[in-house]
Write a structure and sequence with these properties.
The chain is an alpha/beta fold. It contains 28 helices and 13 strands. The strands form 3 sheets. Strands 10-9-11-12-8-13 form a 6-stranded parallel sheet, with helices on both faces.
């Protein structure tokens, strides 16, 4: 029996609420590990705040800003707060846009400097190029032309537009990255902007703060330091659950002395055995430990070491059968949801996206893009305009075509095609003629799918580019141009832009079915999940699949984490300099995946060093001998 009771964290709510006192505001970092109920705390303290200070906030037109990671999380919190007018709940992109959207002249000034700097850098690269006909030079020249045109058109923009859920391809729109960067810059440098922000939002709360863009977090830290007498910054997070590289490392460490640092101790999600395991995983990272609810004793953890070379899908099905026997739970082997409404399939988590890409059949599209830092986050969090062009326009359009849904086809064309833009409709006297033009062009696109064919992504782009049916994002337009170039010489440049464009060159060789499979995966409409996709979610039964060889991960290594492979000289140097290592990233990944399980957890590790792996796991005291099984 746990010596603690289930109310052990109630005092944390009291501690956080004290920070909201308008007469004595305090900033805080609330450590909230997996399953700790941070949303419950957030709602509790805000509900209490509304009762005590809500009327005054309404009269003064002030709002507490609550920044969440997803639209779904924002909707849930808004619902639980009964949509009160004193709270502004939004994603980070929406929050930043709401702050900057009226500062048109300042946005122009920021863009003018940014565009000039970018153009100068590109022109230097072009001047050094020995071959102006290679793909890199063609891309750079097109970028200079596009950015120069945008620079020239800046003065004609009377108001900027932005949609956090769209791709913002019009002349007056800002992209996702620009909105965050502009907001961070304004918060850090503009006195009037800071004054307006603090007056409008005396309290700003950030959920999943460890994954919030580093520049924005640092700007808010600077603002808090300057305005600590009338401004409170509240961060909810857990550095062990940081999954994106552009978040601030070691957030929560070395905070100013005047910050409050409450800690939630209880994990409400998992059974005690699973909590024991995740406590062990993070033991070498920090000293944060969790306890289980009094009624959640027990639970099952099993580590299966599988000899490489065995059939993976067959082996994993056999492991599920073993788990059903170990746990006395038939749900581990249930499969047929339509026939059995009570069937809840096991959630299989692959710890590297490459693994899911190979298993589900979208590796040609995914792997080149995922290998580039500049592209990776947008590929995973839905903020990539080139990816969204396919997932939000082309996939729904072809889905409608395949079921002969002419109404939905017309709706997609009306929303996304420049042919039927308000500007064109005003110019064209015969609007019926515009509809005929759009119909002819979309039918030409549909022809690519005739006879059950699956065209490549580049073939799709070429047809759309020729017909001007849709506006194509810049990176994809560059790829179209690059596809016409026969590469004869490179200049040895190895900058991020080049890597990104080469990655798109390769990704567009994939056929359409691959991006459909990718979309199913990234939107959690498949039997697989990853640490990015499932953060914050929970499942009764979880199978975690580990295979460094299949994953081909350059950022992660389970062999290093489990002591199978030695550290490299680079790893040792990073440790000495206090920088992040493969082991740091991998342990976080492992923690997030294992902590999704509520009742039972199976870990499947493919290895050629089964005996050594078993011995190391026992030595680490993560698993007992009875919890480890070798399958050969």
């Amino acid at each position: 029996m746990n010596k603690y009771n289930n109310d052990i964290d109630n005092e944390v709510d009291v501690e956080v609420y004290k920070c909201f006192n308008p007469n004595d505001p305090k900033s805080f970092f609330l450590f909230a590990g997996a399953g700790s109920g941070k949303t419950r705390t957030l709602v509790n303290v805000l509900t209490e705040f509304k009762e005590e200070y809500g009327r005054d906030y309404k009269l003064k037109n002030k709002k507490i800003a609550i920044i969440t990671y997803t639209n779904a999380a924002a909707d849930e919190i808004n619902h639980r707060l009964e949509f009160s007018a004193i709270f502004s709940v939004s994603t980070i992109h929406s929050f930043c846009w709401n702050l900057i959207q009226t500062f048109t002249s300042d946005i122009k000034a920021w863009l003018r400097l940014d565009l000039k700097k970018s153009i100068e850098e590109l022109e230097i690269l072009l001047s050094k190029s020995r071959n102006l006909a290679n793909k890199t030079s063609v891309s750079n020249a097109k970028k200079v032309k596009t950015k120069t045109k945008r620079l020239e058109n800046l003065d004609m923009i009377s108001k900027f537009s932005y949609n956090p859920n769209s791709d913002n391809l019009t002349k007056d729109s800002l992209n996702h990255s620009e909105v965050i960067s502009i907001a961070a810059s304004f918060i850090a440098t503009k006195k009037l902007f800071k004054k307006i922000l603090v007056n409008r939002h005396p309290i700003i709360l950030i959920d999943e703060s460890q994954d919030t863009k580093k520049d924005l977090i640092e700007a808010l830290f600077s603002l808090q330091k300057e305005s600590n007498e009338n401004f409170s910054l509240g961060l909810f997070g857990d550095t062990m659950q940081r999954i994106y590289n552009d978040g601030k490392e070691r957030l929560g460490e070395n905070l100013p002395d005047d910050w409050v640092k409450p800690v939630k101790q209880m994990n409400h999600r998992s059974k005690s055995r699973i909590i024991e395991l995740i406590n062990k995983i993070r033991e070498g990272v920090d000293q944060q430990q969790q306890i289980a609810r009094t009624e959640k004793t027990g639970g099952f953890v099993k580590f299966f070491i599988v000899q490489r070379g065995l059939n993976k899908l067959t082996t994993e099905e056999e492991i599920k059968r073993k788990m059903s026997i170990i746990t006395k739970d038939d749900q581990w082997i249930c499969k047929d949801i339509p026939k059995d409404k009570n069937c809840i399939p096991v959630k299989t988590l692959t710890l590297e996206h490459h693994m899911a890409a190979v298993r589900m059949g979208f590796a040609t599209f995914f792997n080149p893009l995922y290998s580039v830092d500049k592209i990776r986050t947008g590929l995973l969090d839905g903020s990539s305009s080139p990816v969204n062009f396919f997932t939000k326009i082309i996939i729904p359009l072809i889905a409608a075509y395949k079921v002969h849904n002419n109404f939905e086809i017309a709706n997609i064309i009306k929303i996304h095609s420049p042919i039927l833009s308000k500007e064109n409709i005003k110019k064209e006297k015969d609007q019926f003629n515009l509809l005929k033009i759009a119909k002819a062009k979309v039918e030409k696109l549909f022809f690519l799918w005739e006879d059950n064919k699956s065209p490549t992504l580049l073939q799709i782009l070429n047809v759309i580019h020729e017909s001007k049916l849709f506006n194509i994002p810049l990176d994809l337009r560059l790829s179209i141009d690059r596809s016409l170039v026969i590469e004869t010489e490179t200049d040895g440049e190895d900058v991020d832009d080049d890597k990104a464009l080469m990655a798109w060159d390769d990704a567009l060789k994939a056929d359409f079915n691959e991006i459909v499979m990718y979309n199913n995966y990234i939107t959690e409409n498949s039997g697989f999940g990853t640490h990015q996709g499932v953060k914050g979610l929970e499942y009764e039964r979880v199978m975690v699949v580990i295979d460094d060889e299949e994953a081909r991960g350059f950022q992660f290594s389970y062999d290093k984490l489990f002591g199978i492979s030695p550290l490299t000289a680079s790893d040792t140097k990073n440790i000495e300099e206090g920088k992040e290592t493969h082991i740091d990233r991998t342990s976080r990944l492992f923690y997030v995946a294992c902590s999704r399980a509520k009742e039972s957890l199976a870990i499947v590790a493919y290895s050629t060093e089964a005996p050594q792996l078993r011995d190391n796991l026992i030595k680490f005291k993560w698993f007992t001998e009875n919890e480890i099984e070798i399958i050969q």
